[in-house]
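Note on ligand handling. Small-molecule inputs were canonicalized before submission; formal charges were left as drawn, and no protonation-state enumeration was performed. Where a ligand contained multiple stereocentres, the stereochemistry in the source SMILES was retained. For pyridoxal-5'-phosphate, this procedure yielded the string shown in the input block below.
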Amino acid sequence: MQYDSSREFAEKMDSSDPLKGFREKFYIPKNKEGKDVIYFAGNSLGLQPKTVRGYVEQELTDWEKMGVEGHMHAKHPWLPYHEFLTDSTAALVGAHNEEVVNMNSLTVNLHLMLVSFYRPQKNRFKIMIETNAFPSDHYAVQSHLRFHGYNASEGLIEMKPRDGENTIRTEDILAKIEAEGDSIALIMLAGVNYYTGQAFEFSKITEAAHAKGIITGFDLAHAAGNLQLELHKWDVDFAIWCSYKYLNAGPGAIAGAYVNRKHLLDMTIPKFWGWWGQDKATRFLMHHDFQPIPTVESWQLSNPPILQLAALRASLDIFAEAKMENLRAKSELLTGYLEFLLESKSNITIITPKNKIERGCQLSLRAAKNGKQLHTSLNEAGVICDWREPDVIRVAPVPLYNTFVDIWEFANML
Ligand SMILES: *Cc1c(COP(=O)(O)O)cnc(C)c1O
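Structure output:
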């Protein structure tokens, strides 16, 4: 793509954008003058699809009119409600239907996966994670190390960038697996790192890990709805994600989980059990003999929050219509354009990788000085992006609702 820095170029890109109609499906917050803000925080909380209200109201109405009978007789019966999201979820992450489920919240799902997939043995008990992983992920893996009697200093292998570099080289991860793989039980990395915006190379890492007998899981909080994922093809063992960032399902939305189907019938895998994981045909016989559903649904504990599932279903229906491959194609252009316009700004360094396969839509910017002040000024000028300690402004143009003109205006303000 031959970018140019004129406003006309941005306008032309918007008018020829095959996905331009999707912005209309979202509520865009307004600034003080009543003008649409430039919303670059879809990596933190995605905007509200206009259809969410109708989807949620349907369930409120059925609850109002039917009470408990809604479990069977609601327009979209609550008993199997989560199944109405399976096709779209599987398509979104590149999985088979039996490999995905929406349940709980992200950190809860991470714990459930660690119960099942972190099974330390005498000489193989370490967990590989990136040093700058999201705090919750660090807490989760540290707590499982402690639970099994290890401490973090003996049990964690932390990957970090080389001195003077900002992101972790894939070759360094692969070399570490090669050198120390026999002592590693689990690799738990982000799909896209929340801070730097680096996307990890799922397929290469998983392949190298498997060659050493290591289980590989990814936290897709910043990857689901952002990258075009192929979890099954890449042979990833498990993954979890939240749905309030790129998936636009609202604050505290219900989260997702994937388990590779090769593990689904393995009864030697430890698992925390609840009645919603029990075989559907016998669940209501209320006996005490746990027979798991032969899909990832067997990890479900409780009957799920239907209002939350309704909001997520509204959003996933939009993803199904737009298709992830189209969104990703636009996303690469948007982010490439942002990168192009920022290259001329001597006060800004982009720490996110240049290589498209090593990033999603987010660029993480480091200002030469007064970064926090710069962020505040941008905010006052109607740009919603975020500041992450110690020194980064994260900017995430989202292909569903951001425009090339958004990016042009942002770069101009900078
Ligand atoms: C956003 C995010 C979380 C947040 O966890 P919740 O359980 O949803 O509150 C955790 N991990 C990563 C990598 C994140 O980006």
